[in-house]
Amino acid sequence: MQSSLLFESVEEIFLRVFRELRPRAPRPEFSIQFYPYANLDSTIRLNPERTRVRVRMSDVFEGAPAPVKEALAYILIAKLYRKPIPGKYQHRYRLFVNRADIRRKALLLRQLRGRKQISSARGHVHDLEEIFQDLNGRFFDGLLAQPRLSWSPRVSRRMLGHWDPAHNAMIISRIFDRSQTPRFLVEYILYHEMLHLKYPAEYRSQRRCVHTRAFKEDERKFPRYDEALALLKQL
Question: Is 3.30.2010 the CATH number for 2-113?
Answer without folding.
Answer: yes
